[in-house]
């Protein structure tokens, strides 16, 4: 019996030693396993980060998918196939579309502010155009045909705005002012759709095509709505001419939009064709413009409005020439990737032209006459 106890004690001590050794081996192997797992996780995380960095990196022209190859003279700083969230926040990042977005986004904000200023009847803000053009003395306005020149630094006297008695609460407000607001809305739609297009067109081929079509529609709408203030107010005593001219430009605009819905016409190959369509719509305005000059030959404000409209036409024409020719990047590829390339210059001239037309529209609105 004593021997049995000894055997049991020996066996128990052996088992205890074996269990202790196993625990020690387990403790020694666990840190190695944890270390290996940590290294493995870090490697995977590093691979994921590298993958994301590569995905959202700015690319060169040669790395772009075919649908984004629009201007071979802009060599770098492209975004391609970015998620919508990344595309949205890229508005605060430098790439070759940054200034394309901001030139028209700031233009949109400017016209939004002018619209609000006109609605709440704040003449100082509504005549914001005079900050750039100066103020034309009221005495000179009466004799404008004798002393006006395109280089004049004084155009419209802000004090005369108080003479405009139309109140937004008056019954005839909607019938007399709506053409002016049609133009403002058309301009805002054009500028906002352009900014949206340049910001999100890097997302996918499908969205790129849709946004380009919206951008072209915005340009067309802006051209159409620009006709409304001058034609409505100049020919308000001859309604049939209002109908003829406004219907004519509207039909041309609808045909232009339908034509540009073709995906093929959104490619770089048809850049000149698109420009020709828009220029032809603008040239249509020569007919009512000449007619208006004949009808209002003795109007003392004729030369002022003519100057504004000439500045508008010249701005749009110069901007279109930059758009088609792709100058200056054509001369020095890669030098104007971020700033100074043709499309950015085109955007600036579009805003300048719209502001010039706004100045003319303010005069039409102020000096409209009863029949």
Automatic annotation (TrEMBL):
<dbReference type="GO" id="GO:0016020">
    <property type="term" value="C:membrane"/>
</dbReference>
<dbReference type="GO" id="GO:0009744">
    <property type="term" value="P:response to sucrose"/>
</dbReference>
<feature type="transmembrane region" description="Helical">
    <location>
        <begin position="241"/>
        <end position="261"/>
    </location>
</feature>
<feature type="binding site">
    <location>
        <position position="343"/>
    </location>
    <ligand>
        <name>Zn(2+)</name>
    </ligand>
</feature>
<keyword id="KW-1133">Transmembrane helix</keyword>
<feature type="binding site">
    <location>
        <position position="347"/>
    </location>
    <ligand>
        <name>Zn(2+)</name>
    </ligand>
</feature>
<protein>
    <recommendedName>
        <fullName>Heptahelical transmembrane protein 1-like</fullName>
    </recommendedName>
</protein>
<feature type="transmembrane region" description="Helical">
    <location>
        <begin position="273"/>
        <end position="294"/>
    </location>
</feature>
<keyword id="KW-0812">Transmembrane</keyword>
<dbReference type="InterPro" id="IPR004254">
    <property type="entry name" value="AdipoR/HlyIII-related"/>
</dbReference>
<dbReference type="GO" id="GO:0009725">
    <property type="term" value="P:response to hormone"/>
</dbReference>
<keyword id="KW-0862">Zinc</keyword>
<feature type="transmembrane region" description="Helical">
    <location>
        <begin position="345"/>
        <end position="365"/>
    </location>
</feature>
<keyword id="KW-0479">Metal-binding</keyword>
<feature type="transmembrane region" description="Helical">
    <location>
        <begin position="214"/>
        <end position="235"/>
    </location>
</feature>
<feature type="transmembrane region" description="Helical">
    <location>
        <begin position="99"/>
        <end position="120"/>
    </location>
</feature>
<feature type="transmembrane region" description="Helical">
    <location>
        <begin position="306"/>
        <end position="324"/>
    </location>
</feature>
<feature type="transmembrane region" description="Helical">
    <location>
        <begin position="180"/>
        <end position="202"/>
    </location>
</feature>
<keyword id="KW-0472">Membrane</keyword>
<dbReference type="Pfam" id="PF03006">
    <property type="entry name" value="HlyIII"/>
</dbReference>
<feature type="binding site">
    <location>
        <position position="198"/>
    </location>
    <ligand>
        <name>Zn(2+)</name>
    </ligand>
</feature>
